[in-house]
Amino acid sequence: MKTVRLVSGHEMPVLGLGTWALRGEQCKVAVKKAIELGYTHIDTAWMYGNQKEIAEALREVGVARTELFITSKIWRTHLKYNAVLEQCEECLEQLQTDYLDLLLIHWPNETVPLEETLAAFNKIYDEGKTKSIGVSNFNIGLVDQAREFSRAPISVNQVEYHVHQNREALRQHCQKHQIVLTAYSPLAKGAILREPILKPIAEKHGKTIPQIALRWLLQKGLIVIPKASSESHLRTNFDVFNWELTQDEMQQINNIKINPI
Q1: For the chain, which domains are there?
Q2: Res. 260: pLDDT tops 60
């Protein structure tokens, strides 16, 4: 699996399994199959309510913790200092691990000072309970505030990013400050299947439309975490390496004008 080096110094796989809306046995089956297919990056959150199932799946498949990259997130209702620490402990307990690879502020909350939240994140980082920290759903202004308030480096900003929501200004700003963007909902919950520009590009490469959409993001330097539960979709999403889109194809997709940000 290809990785990128975060500003924290740790390697992060560029493709992961998104687990939002995966619950119970469906979640366990998806995680186990993903690991068997070669996935090592699992993205979850306290709010998803599936961390116990993920831990069970990882234990049953027998993968070493050191082979995994696990991301979790602190929900926006728990961003006060002590609440952050308590929810982090809950995440570690649910995931049956001593540390996270990446801990994110799931959503900003204007009623809680960001400086207070990040003080707790820095304590967690200093104690080795997470190897890297970051944010999610932060715009340019909030990213800059996070950088200012955090002594530990802000390594990642996870946002919705797909061909119908090309957040180029945010991508360039984060890249300038060595913050990696992770794209959630990279397939726009299936809406990209109706995007006419992608179909001929997919046919030319002998790939699916979702593979083209994921490859576009990877070539722009993003990490992608598509949600999938079926083996066929897990396999398809994994087959985005060892081939490339041309510069002209990248530009065609860049020029899609739906919901530009």
Answers
A1: 10-254 (3.20.20.100)
A2: no
Kind plus residue range of the DSSP H or E element containing 185 = none
Question: To the nearest whole number, what is the mean pLDDT of the chain?
Answer: 97
Tokens encoding 139: 């715009």
Residue listed under structure tokens 């602190």: 74
Q: What is the pLDDT of residue 261?
A: 42
Q: How confident is the model at residue 259 (pLDDT cuts 50, 70, 90)?
A: low
In whole angstroms, give the CA distance from residue 228 to residue 33.
10
Q: Is 197 helix (H, G, I), strand (E, B) or coil?
A: coil
Residue in the structure block whose two tokens are 């340019």: 140
- pLDDT top residue among 175 and 257: 175
CA distance 68 to 56: 14
Degrees, nearest 5: CA angle 20-178-256: 60
The enclosing H or E element of 63 equals none
Contact assessment for residue 136 and residue 157, using Cβ atoms and an 8 Å cutoff: yes
How distant, in Å, are the alpha carbons of 14, 118, 126, 228 from that of 37?
15, 36, 34, 13
CB neighbours of residue 92 within 10 Å: 19
pLDDT tens across 50-72, in order?
A: 999 999 999 999 999 999 999 99
Spell out the residues 6+ positions from residue 69 whose beta carbon is closer than 8 angstroms to its own. Answer: 11, 12, 13, 16, 40, 41, 42, 101, 102
Residues annotated as catalytic are 48
Alpha helices by DSSP H, listed for 63-197, are 81-95, 114-126, 140-149, 168-176
pLDDT (tens digit, 9 = 90+) per residue, 84-138?
A: 999 999 999 999 999 999 999 999 999 999 999 999 999 999 999 999 999 999 9
